[in-house]
Design brief:
Order of helices and strands: EHEHEEEEEHHEHEHHEHEH
Helix content: 25-40%
Strand order of the largest sheet: 3-6-7-2-1-8-9-10-11
Number of helices: 9
Number of strands: 11
CATH class: Alpha Beta
Strand content: 15-25%
Number of domains: 1
CATH superfamily: Glycogen Phosphorylase B
Shape: globular
Distance between the termini: 11 Å
Largest sheet: 9 strands, mixed
């Protein structure tokens, strides 16, 4: 069997940033897969909490410089890279001064949810896919983690479905219990849209809230994974709603979880 290429996309990764269980998961699983001979790439946002000097981030000029559309605006994409000191893993950071310079993640210093978190997610998801295109590296598996990556399965099934980089990619969406209560204002559809994305594709996003993003990620991914069976009731209901149409597994982070993901990846590729 040839080496599988796996792209991990997440909101955070240890040791650069750790605010939830996502960071630890995205630190351990890619290394385990690399040790099994797979090729790995990791993409996360460059939130302002990440100290560039301490973590030795530097800009990758050949990947930076394109503009990403968010509604009617275009924002410059900056790509930075750093290595995990204790592993042979490189992490690519999606950056933009307007969206990621602030010294907080999703909530400000008064713990108020940022009104433009929807735009930050759109920019991150679109920017991640364009970065992989510029790398010229075609992933077999795109493993998306949590709500900030929920648009990626949609884009791969629509805008990028005939792109040589993504046309054979399978998507995995792992769900964590990181619910927020905010409802986004404004025209969310126009921000999310890309070529071949129609209103019908975005019907699950009409609620403009956490559930909407999660439903969209579940709808377009090839496999949906619960990070635990002990999730909040709203999430469990979402799983019940899509269980008949979608393969759903629970893979908890225990001593066996890397083997279960290894089997899942190979099963998806066939």
């Amino acid at each position: 069997m040839s080496k599988l290429r796996i792209l991990y996309v997440a909101s955070e990764i240890d040791p650069f940033l750790q605010t939830s269980e996502v960071a630890d998961f995205v630190r351990k699983l890619p290394q385990a897969m690399q040790e099994k001979g797979m090729e790995i790439r990791i993409l996360v946002p460059r939130f302002g909490l990440i100290n560039e000097r301490k973590n030795r981030l530097h800009e990758v000029v050949r990947l930076s410089g394109i503009n990403i559309s968010v509604g009617e605006e275009e924002k410059p994409l900056v790509i930075k890279v750093a290595s995990i000191p204790t592993a042979k893993l490189q992490v690519y950071f999606i950056d933009n001064e307007d969206y990621f310079k602030r010294k907080f993640v999703f909530n400000d210093k008064e713990d108020k949810f940022y009104e433009d978190n929807d735009e930050r997610v759109v920019f991150f998801c679109k920017g991640a896919l364009e970065t992989v295109k510029k790398l010229g590296w075609a992933p077999d598996i795109v493993h998306c983690n949590d709500w900030m990556t929920s648009l990626i399965p949609l884009y791969i099934k629509t805008t990028y479905k005939n792109d040589p980089i993504f046309q054979n990619s399978k998507t995995v969406f792992t769900v964590y219990d990181n619910k927020f209560n905010h409802k986004f204002n404004g025209d969310l559809f126009s921000k999310v849209k890309m070529i071949d994305v129609e209103d019908e594709n975005l019907k699950n996003l009409k609620s403009a809230d956490y559930s909407g993003f999660m439903k969209l990620g579940m709808e377009y991914s090839d496999a949906v994974i619960k990070s635990s069976d002990d999730l909040n009731k709203e999430l469990l209901q979402l799983f019940d709603d899509c269980e008949e149409k979608k393969k759903i597994n629970t893979i908890e982070k225990d001593e066996n979880f890397t083997e279960l993901y290894f089997e899942l990846y190979n099963e998806l590729i066939g």
